[in-house]
Design a protein that fits this description.
heterodimer, A: alpha/beta, Glutaredoxin, six-stranded mixed sheet, two-stranded antiparallel ribbon, 6 helices, 32% helix, 21% strand, B: alpha+beta, six-stranded antiparallel sheet, 5 helices, 12 strands
Chain lengths: 174, 193
């Protein structure tokens, strides 16, 4: 028979112990495969340096596209792992674009002091681009195959430098 | 580490289905309710009216709208599909199926679509509306294993009020229901000690 915890201090200690475990690193880092051939909507957006980026410019490459805002807690949570992942996959010819929804360059610039990113951050200030994608909440990330179809989707944050997750992304290059 | 700082007290709560725990943030005193059943996990964390005021005052909302939102009993809400990818069970939610029981009467949650439609451009400019459009929880959404979302849900009752919440979701198409009892809206600043 299981012994039950009868006192509050024991319960609190157990809770703290469980919380101290590295839950995130143990969690399965899933990507949801999108069946069929759903083509990614094209866009033409400026990055924070003023350079324009069209998704069609990246045809032939695997592209990770992340929709986010600075005021979204899980968006902030995943940015460091996205940056670490980008330093690995950039050398392998995989692109990564973060599309900020609704904010201006100054807001993103101030935010980047705490959450630096080395991959392009695009600005969808009017929110017109995000409305063309099947996004329901933030963050949502899509992995686009070299032929322009949406291959995978992730709702909520992920540990983007997870080896298993990146292997799925890499496999799209073949 | 955030978890250690946040959870100071967990108390078993009576439920009709699933499992509910209540937590209190040791740093700010805000309470949270955590519900699990099958492949779904729902977490509601009190949001102070001042937190909502601070968010909205950074955008072009009228004072009236800021107060309307701040005093509408907001909760930071997290819904997650905790299933394994091997099972691949889809969890879907439709917030229009949720009901709160307050003062003995069932009520629907405030939906962002209705709020956005009710505001003129003088109440909220288009850029400001994006904050509500994307900051509030999606009314309908599907989650595959590992997916989760964060957003605000609004209950339309006074700060400091208590209510029970009937939640509904579908797991691989089958409707399921649960209840979270004894939820309390965060008090407004004048009630904080």
């Amino acid at each position: 028979m299981m012994r039950t915890l009868s006192t509050l201090p024991q319960l609190i200690m157990l809770t703290l112990l469980l919380c101290a475990l590295p839950v995130v690193s143990q969690a399965e880092q899933t990507l949801t495969a999108i069946p069929g051939k759903v083509m990614a909507p094209d866009f033409n957006l400026p990055d924070t340096s003023g350079s324009m980026h069209s998704l069609s410019d990246y045809r032939g490459k695997v592209v990770i596209i992340n929709f986010w805002t600075t005021w979204c807690p899980p968006c902030r949570e995943e940015l460091p792992s996205m940056n670490r992942a980008w330093h690995t996959i950039e050398k392998e010819g995989i692109a990564m674009l973060a599309i900020n929804m609704g904010e201006d360059e100054d807001t993103i610039f101030i935010f980047s002091a705490d959450y630096p990113t080395d991959f392009p951050v695009l600005m969808d200030q009017s929110g017109e681009v995000i409305e063309q994608w099947p996004v329901k909440g933030l963050p949502t990330t899509y992995v686009i195959a070299p032929d322009g179809r949406i291959a995978y989707r992730a709702i909520g944050s992920r540990e983007w430098d997870d080896a298993g997750l990146l292997d799925k992304v890499r496999a799209l290059q073949q | 580490m955030r978890c250690i700082a946040t959870v100071s007290l967990i108390v078993a709560m009576p439920v009709t289905a699933g499992e509910v725990t209540r937590s209190v943030n040791a740093e700010n005193g805000l309470q949270g309710w955590h519900f699990t059943d099958g492949d779904i996990e729902i977490e509601l964390i009190q949001r102070l009216p001042d937190q909502t005021r601070a968010l909205l005052m950074n955008h072009k909302f009228s004072r009236q709208v800021i107060e309307q939102m701040a005093l509408s009993c907001m909760f930071q809400t997290i819904i997650r599909n905790t299933g394994q990818s091997t099972t691949n069970r889809v969890v879907s939610i439709d917030l229009t199926e949720w009901r709160l029981l307050h003062d003995g009467k069932p009520r629907k949650l405030l939906m962002k679509e209705a709020l956005l439609e009710s505001w003129t451009d003088a109440d909220a400019d288009p850029a400001a509306k994006l904050v509500v459009r994307w900051g509030m929880f999606p009314t309908q959404q599907e989650y595959l294993p590992g997916d989760y979302n964060w957003g605000l849900t609004a209950y339309g009752i006074q700060p400091g009020s208590g209510f029970d919440l009937d939640v509904a979701w579908r797991e691989s198409g089958a409707l399921r229901r649960g209840e979270i009892r004894g939820i309390v809206c965060a008090p407004d600043v004048d009630k904080l000690k």
